[in-house]
Specification:
Layout lengths: L2 H18 L5 H4 L2 H24 E2 L2 E2 L3 H14 L4 H17 L4
Antiparallel strand pairs: 1-2
Length: 103
C-alpha cells in the first residue's frame, strides 16, 4: 500500500479515538482514582518520550550533548527554577557541550 494511505488511516484512527473520548460518561471522569491514573499515564508517556529523544539516534543509542542538556535541565527543575529558565539552562548546556566537542 502507498504510504499516504497508511497516513490517512492513522489520522482517521486518531481522530476516531479522540471523538470516542466524548462518549465516556462524566461520572467515570469524576472518580478521583481515574483522574489520578490519567495524570500518571500522561507523566509516564512524556518522560519516556523525553528519554527516547535524549538517548536515541535512529535505531542506536547515543550519549551526546542532548544527555548533558537533559541532566542540566533536571538539576534546574530540582532547584525549582521557572520553566523558561529550565529550557534556557538545557539549551545552554547543550550549546556548551557541543562547543567543547561532545557531539
Amino acid at each position: 500500500m502507498n504510504l499516504w494511505i497508511w497516513l490517512l488511516i492513522a489520522c482517521a484512527l486518531s481522530y476516531a479515538w479522540k471523538i470516542s473520548g466524548y462518549l465516556v460518561p462524566a461520572k467515570l471522569l469524576e472518580n478521583p482514582k481515574m483522574s489520578r491514573v490519567a495524570g500518571t499515564m500522561t507523566i509516564g508517556l512524556l518522560a519516556s518520550l523525553t528519554m527516547v529523544n535524549a538517548v536515541a539516534t535512529g535505531q542506536s543509542l547515543a550519549a551526546d550533548a542532548r544527555l548533558g542538556a537533559l541532566a542540566a535541565a533536571a538539576i534546574a527543575l530540582a532547584l525549582r527554577a521557572p520553566f523558561l529558565v529550565v529550557v534556557l539552562v538545557g539549551a545552554g548546556a547543550a550549546a556548551a557541550l557541543r562547543f567543547i566537542g561532545w557531539n
